[in-house]
Design a protein that fits this description.
OB fold (Dihydrolipoamide Acetyltransferase, E2P), GMP Synthetase, Chain A, domain 3
Length: 365
């Protein structure tokens, strides 16, 4: 009678296990098949450790029957077995009358119930496997978010490096000093937007998300939020370069002759671009309309310069000489050479910007 009660109790525990598994899968939005495989591996490991089983053990979550099953597998060999994972044909025929040499025979070794120690071990292994499955799934989801903006909470700051928690996940994001904008201030508990650069494993084998607020992609994604025409693909970004905290230059175009790509990005009275400037702490943003005319393109990329006198392009040498009015030279070059540097990166050429008086002096020598 006691044995019958033990069977009923084991069956009840198994049923409760499957209900809990189903609930966990739904609550954590986990792939149930992946979760089941992880748990089966954990149960098999716990069984072998508790029972001292040397054969290959496979655990099977039989959801249809509502029970957890264990099987030991051995290969049928000719003559006397030499290893624990082998059995003789004679032994195999006792398990399966159709067995033959070379077959893999599975024997049902499901216990009525695991001991308390085995159950505790199984629980620990299962939780470990579940956490691994959660991390793997979240890492996979984060890989899909590479190149996107996500919301994050600053959890700690160490040696200038900002560590964040990606909201809606258990993933840690790391933002190096180089990935921080000089105009930003970071405080623990702040909720910020970050750009996902890539997903990697750290030195401890944990998955980490490398995030940034200084890259050009961060500004591009802010524009996509602010400008529906960019998000929909009606307006496209040809190129974008940035020196975080100083200046961004973004080149746009459209294939729709009825759409003004420049106005779409700037907005009425500059409201769209000004909104992004505000989010970037006052960083300057130049939105440039693309043209295939290289001379005109260079002039536009030096925006807001309006006094270019001439441009001589040497496409083979990837150089261009830009002549400007004397009073526009500092504007053309920009503070610390920033305007010229970003324009050069946009056009893919070295820009030699000179004033008209310097050219005249050279010619007079």
């Amino acid at each position: 009678m006691a044995r019958k009660n033990e069977k009923a109790s084991a069956k009840k525990d198994d049923r409760e296990f499957f209900l809990a598994l189903d609930q966990l899968s739904k609550e954590r939005k986990l792939d149930k098949d992946m979760l089941i495989k992880s748990i089966e591996a954990g149960l098999a490991s716990a069984y072998k450790k508790e029972m001292g089983e040397s054969r290959t053990v496979v655990a099977k979550l039989n959801e249809e029957a509502g029970r957890i099953e264990f099987f030991a597998f051995q290969k049928v060999v000719e003559g006397e077995p030499q290893e624990d994972n082998e059995l003789s044909l004679e032994e195999a025929l006792d398990i399966d009358p159709n067995a033959k040499i070379g077959d893999i025979i599975g024997e049902d070794i499901t216990p009525l119930s695991l001991s308390r120690i085995a159950a505790q071990t199984a629980k620990q292994v299962i939780m470990q496997r579940i956490n691994e499955a959660i991390r793997e799934q979240i890492a996979s989801e984060m890989n899909d978010k590479e190149g996107e903006l996500v919301t994050a909470i600053i959890r700690r700051i160490e040696s200038g490096i900002v560590y964040v928690e990606i909201t809606g996940s258990q993933m840690e994001g790391v933002m190096s000093v180089a990935d921080q904008s000089p105009t930003d201030e970071y405080h623990i508990g702040d909720v910020i937007k970050v750009f996902v650069k890539r997903v990697r494993e750290n030195a401890f084998g944990n998955t980490q998300v490398v995030v940034s607020r200084s890259c050009a992609g961060f500004v591009k994604k802010l524009f996509e939020i602010e400008v529906p025409e960019l998000k929909s693909g009606l307006v496209k970004v040809k190129n974008i370069v940035r020196e975080a905290g100083n200046r961004t230059k973004m080149v746009v175009y459209t294939d729709d002759p009825n759409l003004d790509a420049l106005s779409a990005c700037i907005g009425m009275r500059g409201e769209r671009v000004n909104s992004i400037v505000g989010q970037l702490g006052g960083e300057k943003i130049d939105v440039i309309l693309y043209t295939s005319n290289i001379v005109e393109y260079i002039i536009r990329c030096l925006n807001p310069l309006k006094s270019v006198i001439s441009v001589k392009v040497d496409e083979e040498a990837k150089r261009a000489e830009v002549l400007v009015a004397d009073n526009k030279l500092s504007l053309a070059i920009g503070k610390g050479g920033m305007n010229a540097k970003l324009a050069s990166r946009l056009v893919g050429m070295k820009l030699d910007i000179r004033s008209i008086s310097s050219v005249t002096e050279d010619q007079g020598e």
